[in-house]
UniProtKB/TrEMBL annotation:
It comes from Methylovorus glucosotrophus (strain SIP3-4). It comes from the Bacteria. This is Diguanylate cyclase/phosphodiesterase with extracellular sensor. Residues 24-277 form the EAL domain.
Amino acid sequence: HVAKAKQSGAVLFDPAFDISSQGNLSLASELRQAIATNELALYVQPKIDLQNGKISAVEALIRWRHPQKGLMFPDQFIPFAEQSGLISLISLWVLAEAARVEVAWRKLGIDAPIAVNLSTRDLIDQDLPHKILTLHQDAGLALGGITLEITESSMMDDPQRAQQTLERLSDMGLQLSIDDFGTGYSSLAYLKRLPVSELKIDKSFVLKMEEDENDRKIVRSTIDLGHNLNLKVVAEGIESRAAWDLLASMGCDFGQGYHISKPMPAADFPAWLQRWQAQELQTA
Ligand code: C2E
Ligand code: MG
Ligand code: MG
Ligand code: MG
């Protein structure tokens, strides 16, 4: 009753679920095992400059290569990880893996900063800034290149503590991005309070903006709002060239979406980037 299997195969978690129940205990131990045995995989999705098509960064999106269930998406285990406390282990794995990938890309001459998604629990851990600092010093990377994407709903638990952690991260030189903007409760309050430098318009507005005039107006106003607050604005969910052009005409800075690329294993990115750059030269 706790984890309801949807027809699509995705798993939904009841927020009031019992962490000690049998099914959850085994998911918790499977997830621990997955971290230890490297079943987790870092996928990346390119983020482009909408005015010239150049790659400005990539976003790290986690996958779980489950030995029985196949490729699992974050919606199928991140909510559980958040509620069971395993998220802090996962986030550290993602941050370390992102640093490792970054170093490997540098050796290939690729300069694409990797943005990482963070959760509530991470912000409650007041040692997180120090952990990130150590990780990056060990890898020989500068902190200035890192962007952390924060989801609004992940800030609900203990907003004051989250804010303190975010301020320390920002003081260290990390860039903070508000993810899924417009879908939470206090988007505007967060923009006012938090030291963010980027705002990501949720894909639910972008996906239908060509047909839906209201969505288009929301997208346009959000871009203007971001710019008025001196933020860079990123649109998610670009599924067509028309959407890219429309966003570019509205002055949106950056974009991501299936039209540019679906998330891919990090190891595939260097070859993808070469193809992208070759294509760009042709159309320039
Ligand atoms: P998000 O950070 O807002 O990431 C965007 C999601 O939209 C990704 O789903 C991406 O694959 C999908 N997407 C990208 N372009 C398009 C498009 O053009 N059309 C459509 N329909 N979808 C698109 P994904 O990878 O399943 O991740 C879902 C969410 O899981 C993420 O949303 C993020 O909140 C969370 N997540 C992913 N990786 C991590 C992680 O390492 N740590 C934490 N804490 N959360 C993560
Ligand atoms: Mg994100
Ligand atoms: Mg998002
Ligand atoms: Mg999301």
